[in-house]
Design a protein that fits this description.
Elements (H helix, E strand, L loop, with lengths): L2 E7 L13 E6 L6 E4 L5 H7 L7 E5 L5 H4 L2 H10 L6 E5 L1 H12 L2 H4 L8 E5 L7 E3 L4 E7 L8 E7 L5 E4 L7 H6 L5 E5 L10 H11 L3 E5 L7 H10 L3 E3 L5 E3 L1
Parallel strand pairs: 3-4, 4-5, 5-6, 10-11, 11-12, 12-13
Antiparallel strand pairs: 1-2, 1-14, 2-3, 7-8, 8-9, 9-10
Helix pairs in contact: 7-8
Bound molecules: zinc ion.
């Protein structure tokens, strides 16, 4: 088993011409139909296809928090899996405020989809907003959450483990540097951390690097990147944690 991380998007809500909003997937070549998608603040299934996976490979959708750049693509996600002929249910997993927002985006389109036949059932899976809550337990993945510091918005980071591989992937999601992400990412092979820049509930690249160093991870990938030149931010991060890279749009990484 070779788990892989796909960076479906690496931008902040507004970013560069080649970066869309931050969205992730994890997959396993040995069982492509167990692909998990994290967030849908854009056309997440097109991005998944661009990374070589099929729409029907999606086993579940994990949503982190209510912000538009993480949830607003949900109605399109549903339209696509319906047109693709999916009949099995789609699990949608997250903390209550994130699921409530996703549900509102879907309900907003009720006049459009109420006549559609055979829409895949949505299995809402709500998890407590607390450290260690299990967001996904179906093989080969175990995904646990931890609350992070995203200003006034309830949000979680994710820790992803694969049943047949030693590696651990951690994702900070949108947050200021915080000890909960240090705990979440302890010993991880890859930490995907936001580097939106200064601001309430966000991190600079150097702040992300401090979290990576404290957690003792092998590698740091920066996402949720703002527009413009990021060479200074990357240099500052590498001074703190040398094995840092900017997340590559549509990049695939083993872990
Ligand atoms: Zn956010």
């Amino acid at each position: 088993a070779m788990p892989a991380l796909h960076l479906l998007g690496t931008g902040a809500a507004i970013s560069d011409a080649h970066r869309t909003t931050t969205m992730l997937a994890v997959s396993d070549d040995a069982s492509p139909s167990n692909t998990l998608v994290v967030d849908c603040g854009g056309d997440v299934l097109q991005r998944l296809q661009a990374c070589g996976r099929a729409i029907d490979d999606v086993d579940g959708l994990l949503v982190t928090h209510a912000h538009m750049d993480h949830t607003s693509g949900f109605p399109l996600f549903m339209e696509k899996i319906w047109l693709d002929g999916r009949d099995r249910p789609i699990p949608v997993c997250g903390i209550e405020p994130a699921l409530a927002q996703v549900r509102r985006t879907w309900d907003a389109f009720a006049p459009v989809h109420e006549g559609w036949e055979d829409i895949p059932p949505i299995n809402w899976h709500k998890v407590p907003h607390e450290q260690g809550a299990r967001l996904w337990t179906q093989a080969p993945w175990t995904v646990t959450v931890t609350p992070v510091d995203h200003g006034d918005t309830a949000n979680v980071g994710l820790r992803v483990e694969h049943a047949d591989a030693d590696g651990v992937l951690a994702y900070s999601c949108d947050t200021a540097p915080t000890s909960s992400v240090v705990d979440l990412a302890e010993g991880a092979d890859v930490l995907v951390h936001e580097a939106n820049g200064v601001g309430d509930g966000h991190s600079t690249a150097a702040g992300a690097a401090e979290v990576a160093a404290e957690a003792g991870v092998d590698r740091l990938l920066l996402v949720h990147l703002p527009p413009g030149d990021k060479s200074n931010a990357l240099r500052e991060a590498r001074q703190v944690f040398p094995h840092t890279d900017l997340g590559e749009e549509l990049g695939t990484y083993g872990w």
